Amino acid sequence: MTPPKPHGTLTVCITGGAGQISYSLLPLIASGEVFGHEQPIELRLLDIKPALEALNGVVMELHDCSFPLLRGIVATDDPMVAFRHADVAVLAGSFPRRPGMERRELLAKNVNIFKAHGHALDQVASKNVKIVVVGNPSNTNALVLSHFAPSIPKGNITALTRLDHNRTVSQVALRTGVSVNDVDGVAIWGNHSATQYPDMTRATAKGELAMPMLGGRKVVAEEIIPCIQKRGAAVLKARGFSSAMSAANAIGDHLRSWLMGDSKIVSMAVASDGSYHVKAGVYFSFPVRCVGGGEYEIVQGIELGEFSRKYVSATTEELFAEREEALSLL
Protein backbone atom coordinates (compact mmCIF):
# COMPACT_ATOMS: atom_id res chain seq x y z
CA MET A 1 0.00 0.00 0.00
CA THR A 2 1.15 3.54 -0.74
CA PRO A 3 1.89 5.55 2.43
CA PRO A 4 -0.40 8.55 3.05
CA LYS A 5 2.52 10.97 2.55
CA PRO A 6 5.08 9.02 0.49
CA HIS A 7 7.55 11.89 0.05
CA GLY A 8 7.48 13.39 3.53
CA THR A 9 6.83 13.04 7.23
CA LEU A 10 3.21 12.57 8.33
CA THR A 11 2.33 14.90 11.20
CA VAL A 12 -0.11 13.21 13.56
CA CYS A 13 -1.70 15.08 16.47
CA ILE A 14 -3.34 13.25 19.37
CA THR A 15 -5.31 15.10 22.04
CA GLY A 16 -5.58 13.61 25.50
CA GLY A 17 -1.97 12.63 24.88
CA ALA A 18 -1.36 11.46 28.45
CA GLY A 19 -4.57 9.43 28.59
CA GLN A 20 -5.12 5.69 28.46
CA ILE A 21 -6.35 5.57 24.87
CA SER A 22 -3.33 7.53 23.66
CA TYR A 23 -1.01 5.27 25.66
CA SER A 24 -2.34 2.25 23.75
CA LEU A 25 -2.54 4.05 20.39
CA LEU A 26 0.90 5.65 20.23
CA PRO A 27 2.89 2.41 19.76
CA LEU A 28 0.58 1.37 16.92
CA ILE A 29 1.16 4.65 15.09
CA ALA A 30 4.87 5.00 15.82
CA SER A 31 5.64 1.39 14.83
CA GLY A 32 4.02 1.68 11.40
CA GLU A 33 1.03 -0.56 12.12
CA VAL A 34 -1.44 2.18 11.14
CA PHE A 35 0.09 4.13 8.24
CA GLY A 36 2.52 1.53 6.94
CA HIS A 37 6.12 0.63 7.61
CA GLU A 38 7.53 3.13 5.13
CA GLN A 39 5.77 6.24 6.48
CA PRO A 40 7.87 8.52 8.74
CA ILE A 41 5.85 10.06 11.58
CA GLU A 42 6.04 13.21 13.68
CA LEU A 43 3.84 13.14 16.79
CA ARG A 44 2.16 16.16 18.35
CA LEU A 45 0.72 15.35 21.77
CA LEU A 46 -1.76 17.75 23.35
CA ASP A 47 -3.09 17.67 26.89
CA ILE A 48 -4.16 20.05 29.64
CA LYS A 49 -1.54 21.75 31.80
CA PRO A 50 -2.04 19.52 34.90
CA ALA A 51 -1.27 16.46 32.72
CA LEU A 52 1.99 17.77 31.25
CA GLU A 53 4.23 15.93 33.71
CA ALA A 54 2.54 12.63 32.84
CA LEU A 55 2.75 13.58 29.15
CA ASN A 56 6.49 14.06 29.48
CA GLY A 57 6.67 10.53 30.87
CA VAL A 58 4.90 9.28 27.75
CA VAL A 59 7.45 11.13 25.63
CA MET A 60 10.28 9.44 27.54
CA GLU A 61 8.77 6.03 26.85
CA LEU A 62 8.33 6.81 23.15
CA HIS A 63 12.02 7.72 22.96
CA ASP A 64 12.91 4.55 24.88
CA CYS A 65 11.00 2.42 22.35
CA SER A 66 13.42 3.60 19.65
CA PHE A 67 10.84 3.51 16.85
CA PRO A 68 12.69 3.82 13.51
CA LEU A 69 9.83 5.73 11.85
CA LEU A 70 9.48 8.33 14.59
CA ARG A 71 11.08 11.59 13.43
CA GLY A 72 10.03 13.90 16.26
CA ILE A 73 7.70 14.48 19.22
CA VAL A 74 6.13 17.72 20.44
CA ALA A 75 4.30 17.69 23.79
CA THR A 76 2.25 20.79 24.61
CA ASP A 77 -0.87 22.24 26.21
CA ASP A 78 -1.28 24.76 23.36
CA PRO A 79 -3.65 23.68 20.56
CA MET A 80 -2.06 26.18 18.16
CA VAL A 81 1.28 24.38 18.58
CA ALA A 82 -0.18 20.88 18.55
CA PHE A 83 -2.29 21.28 15.40
CA ARG A 84 0.23 23.24 13.32
CA HIS A 85 0.55 21.56 9.90
CA ALA A 86 -1.24 18.45 11.23
CA ASP A 87 -2.04 15.91 8.51
CA VAL A 88 -4.03 13.67 10.87
CA ALA A 89 -5.73 14.61 14.15
CA VAL A 90 -7.07 12.09 16.65
CA LEU A 91 -9.26 13.96 19.14
CA ALA A 92 -9.32 11.56 22.06
CA GLY A 93 -9.45 14.21 24.77
CA SER A 94 -12.86 15.33 26.08
CA PHE A 95 -14.61 16.12 29.36
CA PRO A 96 -15.82 12.81 30.86
CA ARG A 97 -19.32 12.33 32.17
CA ARG A 98 -19.35 12.34 35.97
CA PRO A 99 -21.90 10.89 38.39
CA GLY A 100 -25.05 13.01 38.47
CA MET A 101 -24.05 15.06 35.44
CA GLU A 102 -26.91 15.92 33.10
CA ARG A 103 -26.44 15.49 29.35
CA ARG A 104 -26.76 19.25 28.74
CA GLU A 105 -23.96 19.91 31.24
CA LEU A 106 -21.73 17.33 29.53
CA LEU A 107 -22.47 18.88 26.14
CA ALA A 108 -21.68 22.35 27.50
CA LYS A 109 -18.28 21.23 28.79
CA ASN A 110 -17.38 19.60 25.49
CA VAL A 111 -18.73 22.38 23.29
CA ASN A 112 -16.06 24.66 24.75
CA ILE A 113 -13.29 22.11 24.15
CA PHE A 114 -14.26 21.34 20.55
CA LYS A 115 -14.94 24.98 19.77
CA ALA A 116 -11.32 25.77 20.73
CA HIS A 117 -10.02 22.75 18.80
CA GLY A 118 -12.06 23.76 15.76
CA HIS A 119 -10.68 27.30 15.77
CA ALA A 120 -7.10 26.06 16.09
CA LEU A 121 -7.42 23.38 13.41
CA ASP A 122 -9.05 25.87 11.07
CA GLN A 123 -6.14 28.28 11.46
CA VAL A 124 -3.01 26.12 11.53
CA ALA A 125 -3.67 22.52 10.41
CA SER A 126 -3.13 21.27 6.90
CA LYS A 127 -6.24 22.13 4.87
CA ASN A 128 -6.41 18.47 3.91
CA VAL A 129 -6.18 17.30 7.53
CA LYS A 130 -8.08 14.11 8.34
CA ILE A 131 -9.79 14.19 11.73
CA VAL A 132 -11.33 11.44 13.82
CA VAL A 133 -13.25 12.49 16.93
CA VAL A 134 -13.10 9.92 19.72
CA GLY A 135 -14.00 11.87 22.87
CA ASN A 136 -17.68 11.50 23.75
CA PRO A 137 -20.30 12.47 22.80
CA SER A 138 -18.20 11.94 19.68
CA ASN A 139 -20.81 12.41 16.94
CA THR A 140 -21.98 15.75 18.32
CA ASN A 141 -18.44 16.84 19.22
CA ALA A 142 -17.59 16.29 15.53
CA LEU A 143 -20.52 18.52 14.58
CA VAL A 144 -19.34 21.30 16.91
CA LEU A 145 -15.79 20.98 15.61
CA SER A 146 -16.99 21.27 12.02
CA HIS A 147 -19.01 24.38 12.87
CA PHE A 148 -15.89 26.14 14.15
CA ALA A 149 -13.56 24.87 11.41
CA PRO A 150 -15.40 26.12 8.30
CA SER A 151 -12.38 25.88 5.99
CA ILE A 152 -11.96 22.14 6.64
CA PRO A 153 -14.25 20.06 4.39
CA LYS A 154 -16.98 18.25 6.34
CA GLY A 155 -15.86 15.04 4.66
CA ASN A 156 -12.47 15.37 6.37
CA ILE A 157 -14.09 15.14 9.81
CA THR A 158 -15.32 11.79 11.15
CA ALA A 159 -16.27 10.25 14.49
CA LEU A 160 -15.29 6.81 15.71
CA THR A 161 -17.78 3.96 15.48
CA ARG A 162 -15.21 1.39 14.37
CA LEU A 163 -15.03 0.13 17.97
CA ASP A 164 -18.73 -0.68 17.84
CA HIS A 165 -18.22 -2.26 14.40
CA ASN A 166 -15.36 -4.41 15.72
CA ARG A 167 -17.44 -5.44 18.73
CA THR A 168 -20.22 -6.55 16.38
CA VAL A 169 -17.82 -8.52 14.17
CA SER A 170 -16.40 -10.18 17.28
CA GLN A 171 -19.80 -11.16 18.67
CA VAL A 172 -20.85 -12.67 15.34
CA ALA A 173 -17.57 -14.60 15.14
CA LEU A 174 -17.77 -15.85 18.73
CA ARG A 175 -21.39 -16.96 18.40
CA THR A 176 -20.99 -18.68 15.03
CA GLY A 177 -17.61 -20.29 15.74
CA VAL A 178 -15.67 -18.64 12.90
CA SER A 179 -12.68 -16.32 12.67
CA VAL A 180 -13.32 -12.57 12.64
CA ASN A 181 -11.74 -12.60 9.17
CA ASP A 182 -14.65 -14.75 8.00
CA VAL A 183 -17.33 -12.25 9.11
CA ASP A 184 -18.66 -9.67 6.68
CA GLY A 185 -21.70 -7.47 6.19
CA VAL A 186 -22.13 -5.90 9.64
CA ALA A 187 -22.74 -2.17 10.03
CA ILE A 188 -23.21 0.43 12.75
CA TRP A 189 -25.92 3.03 12.22
CA GLY A 190 -26.32 6.30 14.10
CA ASN A 191 -24.88 7.56 17.33
CA HIS A 192 -21.96 6.21 19.35
CA SER A 193 -24.25 5.75 22.34
CA ALA A 194 -26.65 3.21 23.78
CA THR A 195 -29.02 3.96 20.87
CA GLN A 196 -26.54 2.83 18.20
CA TYR A 197 -27.81 0.13 15.89
CA PRO A 198 -25.39 -2.78 15.38
CA ASP A 199 -26.90 -4.20 12.19
CA MET A 200 -26.40 -7.94 11.66
CA THR A 201 -29.30 -8.52 9.27
CA ARG A 202 -26.95 -8.94 6.31
CA ALA A 203 -23.99 -10.36 8.26
CA THR A 204 -22.32 -13.46 6.89
CA ALA A 205 -20.05 -16.03 8.54
CA LYS A 206 -17.89 -17.91 6.05
CA GLY A 207 -20.24 -16.72 3.32
CA GLU A 208 -23.40 -17.99 5.01
CA LEU A 209 -26.09 -15.72 6.43
CA ALA A 210 -25.31 -15.37 10.13
CA MET A 211 -28.77 -14.47 11.45
CA PRO A 212 -30.05 -18.07 11.69
CA MET A 213 -26.77 -19.15 13.34
CA LEU A 214 -27.16 -16.31 15.85
CA GLY A 215 -30.57 -17.60 16.92
CA GLY A 216 -32.77 -15.35 14.80
CA ARG A 217 -34.04 -11.83 15.28
CA LYS A 218 -35.44 -12.38 18.78
CA VAL A 219 -32.05 -13.44 20.18
CA VAL A 220 -30.28 -10.67 18.25
CA ALA A 221 -32.72 -8.04 19.58
CA GLU A 222 -32.83 -9.26 23.17
CA GLU A 223 -29.24 -10.42 23.73
CA ILE A 224 -26.69 -9.44 21.11
CA ILE A 225 -27.65 -5.85 20.28
CA PRO A 226 -27.87 -4.84 23.99
CA CYS A 227 -24.52 -6.59 24.60
CA ILE A 228 -22.84 -4.40 21.98
CA GLN A 229 -24.70 -1.21 22.93
CA LYS A 230 -23.66 -1.61 26.60
CA ARG A 231 -20.22 -3.12 26.04
CA GLY A 232 -18.35 0.01 27.12
CA ALA A 233 -20.21 0.09 30.42
CA ALA A 234 -19.51 -3.62 30.93
CA VAL A 235 -15.77 -3.10 30.38
CA LEU A 236 -15.78 -0.14 32.76
CA LYS A 237 -17.54 -2.17 35.46
CA ALA A 238 -15.18 -5.14 35.02
CA ARG A 239 -11.83 -3.38 34.98
CA GLY A 240 -12.58 -0.07 36.66
CA PHE A 241 -11.44 1.87 33.61
CA SER A 242 -13.05 2.64 30.28
CA SER A 243 -12.15 0.77 27.08
CA ALA A 244 -8.68 1.89 26.05
CA MET A 245 -6.89 -0.97 24.30
CA SER A 246 -9.89 -1.81 22.11
CA ALA A 247 -10.58 1.88 21.43
CA ALA A 248 -6.97 2.47 20.37
CA ASN A 249 -7.08 -0.58 18.12
CA ALA A 250 -10.31 0.70 16.54
CA ILE A 251 -8.79 4.15 15.93
CA GLY A 252 -5.90 2.47 14.14
CA ASP A 253 -8.33 0.41 12.06
CA HIS A 254 -10.41 3.53 11.25
CA LEU A 255 -7.40 5.52 10.08
CA ARG A 256 -5.85 2.64 8.15
CA SER A 257 -9.09 1.95 6.27
CA TRP A 258 -9.74 5.65 5.60
CA LEU A 259 -6.27 6.64 4.43
CA MET A 260 -5.02 3.38 2.95
CA GLY A 261 -8.25 1.83 1.65
CA ASP A 262 -10.15 -1.30 2.66
CA SER A 263 -11.67 -4.14 0.66
CA LYS A 264 -14.44 -4.61 3.24
CA ILE A 265 -17.34 -2.30 4.05
CA VAL A 266 -16.72 -0.67 7.44
CA SER A 267 -18.55 1.78 9.71
CA MET A 268 -17.69 5.46 10.23
CA ALA A 269 -19.67 8.41 11.57
CA VAL A 270 -19.63 10.96 8.76
CA ALA A 271 -21.55 14.09 7.79
CA SER A 272 -25.11 13.07 6.91
CA ASP A 273 -26.24 13.95 3.39
CA GLY A 274 -29.80 12.67 3.18
CA SER A 275 -28.80 9.04 2.69
CA TYR A 276 -31.31 6.64 4.26
CA HIS A 277 -33.58 9.62 5.06
CA VAL A 278 -31.12 11.04 7.59
CA LYS A 279 -31.23 14.76 6.92
CA ALA A 280 -28.01 16.76 6.64
CA GLY A 281 -26.84 18.35 9.87
CA VAL A 282 -25.45 15.56 12.05
CA TYR A 283 -22.52 13.15 12.09
CA PHE A 284 -24.13 9.75 11.66
CA SER A 285 -22.57 6.31 11.45
CA PHE A 286 -23.16 4.61 8.12
CA PRO A 287 -21.67 1.62 6.35
CA VAL A 288 -18.97 3.13 4.14
CA ARG A 289 -16.57 2.00 1.47
CA CYS A 290 -13.05 3.42 1.91
CA VAL A 291 -11.27 3.75 -1.42
CA GLY A 292 -7.99 5.10 0.02
CA GLY A 293 -6.36 8.48 0.12
CA GLY A 294 -8.82 9.73 2.70
CA GLU A 295 -11.83 9.20 0.44
CA TYR A 296 -14.96 7.28 1.40
CA GLU A 297 -18.47 6.82 0.10
CA ILE A 298 -21.64 5.92 1.99
CA VAL A 299 -22.86 2.55 0.76
CA GLN A 300 -26.18 3.03 -0.98
CA GLY A 301 -29.08 0.74 -1.74
CA ILE A 302 -29.27 -1.21 1.52
CA GLU A 303 -32.83 -2.30 2.26
CA LEU A 304 -33.75 -1.38 5.83
CA GLY A 305 -36.66 -3.56 6.85
CA GLU A 306 -39.06 -2.93 9.72
CA PHE A 307 -36.71 -4.61 12.20
CA SER A 308 -33.91 -2.17 11.33
CA ARG A 309 -35.95 0.98 10.78
CA LYS A 310 -37.10 1.26 14.39
CA TYR A 311 -33.49 1.26 15.59
CA VAL A 312 -32.32 3.73 12.94
CA SER A 313 -35.24 6.05 13.76
CA ALA A 314 -34.43 6.02 17.49
CA THR A 315 -30.74 6.81 17.05
CA THR A 316 -31.52 9.50 14.45
CA GLU A 317 -33.95 11.15 16.85
CA GLU A 318 -31.34 11.15 19.62
CA LEU A 319 -28.66 12.69 17.38
CA PHE A 320 -30.89 15.54 16.22
CA ALA A 321 -31.90 16.21 19.85
CA GLU A 322 -28.21 16.37 20.79
CA ARG A 323 -27.63 18.67 17.81
CA GLU A 324 -30.28 21.14 19.00
CA GLU A 325 -28.91 21.13 22.53
CA ALA A 326 -25.35 21.66 21.33
CA LEU A 327 -26.28 24.46 18.93
CA SER A 328 -28.21 26.23 21.71
CA LEU A 329 -24.96 26.34 23.69
CA LEU A 330 -22.83 27.93 20.96
TrEMBL record:
Substrate binds at R97, R103, N136, R167. The keyword Glycoprotein does not apply. PROSITE patterns: MDH. The keyword rRNA processing does not apply. SUPFAM superfamilies: LDH C-terminal domain-like, NAD(P)-binding Rossmann-fold domains. Keywords: NAD, Oxidoreductase, Tricarboxylic acid cycle. NAD(+) binds at D47, N110, V134, G135, N136. Gene3D superfamilies: Lactate dehydrogenase/glycoside hydrolase, family 4, C-terminal, NAD(P)-binding Rossmann-like Domain. One of its GO terms (molecular function) is L-malate dehydrogenase (NAD+) activity. Its EC number is 1.1.1.37. The active site is at H192. It holds the Pfam family Ldh_1_C. Residues 12-156 form the Lactate/malate dehydrogenase N-terminal domain. Residues 161-327 form the Lactate/malate dehydrogenase C-terminal domain. It catalyses: (S)-malate + NAD(+) = oxaloacetate + NADH + H(+). InterPro entries: L-lactate/malate_DH, Lactate/malate_DH_C, Lactate/malate_DH_N, Lactate_DH/Glyco_Ohase_4_C, Malate_DH_AS, Malate_DH_type2, NAD(P)-bd_dom_sf. GO terms for biological process: malate metabolic process; tricarboxylic acid cycle. Belongs to the LDH/MDH superfamily. MDH type 2 family. PANTHER family: MALATE DEHYDROGENASE. This is Malate dehydrogenase. It comes from Gracilariopsis chorda.
